[in-house]
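Q: Got a minute? One more chain.
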Amino acid sequence: MKSLISSVVGSLIAHSVLVLLILSVVVENKSLAAIAVSANWVFVVLGWFVSATCIILSHALMDGSYKGNKAEICKTLSVFTKKKGALRRLYGWLTFTAVLCLLAYSGWVVTAVIYALTSFIFTVCVSIARDKINEFQAA
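A: Always. Here it is, folded:
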């Protein structure tokens, strides 16, 4: 239930930012775009934190000198590395592209580039963590 609530809240916030960006482009209001960009920067910084956490935890999972609970690390990493269905991935790519284009169109090109780079880095880190989980479970 807790993950459902956090998922709904996260989705609601992300879609609110998308709607705010669309609205700022349609009515040509720079203040609405600035609010959406501020929220987007929060997502970017959160993405940096989660990416670093995934890399650190996946390294600890495969490190022989780490004496902690590796099953708990594997459980934590599996939350971030769950594979999504094809429709969900398509919808994610569409919303990512829409946010990227709307950011660039509204004049926030540097923010759009950093958003794209952060998304790429996050995807790579999650892929690395997924591979480390598979290695751990195979061993």
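A: The first helix runs from residue 2 to 26.
Q: Perfect, thanks.
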